[in-house]
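Box 3.1 A note on notation
Throughout this textbook, protein chains are presented in two layers. The first layer is the amino acid sequence; the second is a C-alpha cell string describing backbone geometry. Keep the layers aligned when reading.
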Amino acid sequence: MTEPLEKRLEKAMAELQAAQEAVARTERELRQASFAVLSSDRAVRATVGPQGELTGIEFLENRYRDMSPQELAASVLEAAGAARLKMNRHVMKAMAPFTEPSAEVPELKGFELDWERIFGPAVLEEDDEDTARDGRATPAWRDALGDDGED
C-alpha cells in the first residue's frame, strides 16, 4: 500500500528543511575555510581563502635569497596552486551530500554538478594525502612533526 500523499509531502518538507539547514551550516563553514601548502622545495607557504583567493605568502628560512626570480616564482605558483586545489576538493567534499538523491523521499533526486567544469580537471584526479609528490610514501617523521604543508 502506498503512503498517503499528505504523509509523503510532510516527509519531503521535513527533508527539504533539514537540507536547507545543512546547506546553511556548510556555507558558514566554507566561508571560514582556508588552506596553507608548502612548495616542494619548502621555500614558500601559500595560503588561500574560501574562494581560492591567495590570502598569504610566507618565504621560509630565507631560502628565497638563494633562488633565482624564476625559481621563486615557480615555488609561489606551485604552493598557491596546490592550496587552491585543496580548497576546491574541500568544497567538493562539503557539497557532495547535497548532490545525492534522498533516501527518504525518492522524488528528491539531488543535483549534478560538473566539478571539472567548475574547478578544472585536476580536482577530479586522485587525492592521495599520504603520498609525496614523487609517488613515494610521506615519511612518518614529517607527519609526526606536523610538517605536511598545512596549518
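DSSP finds four helices and three strands in the chain. Residues 132 and 139 are 9 Å apart (CA to CA).
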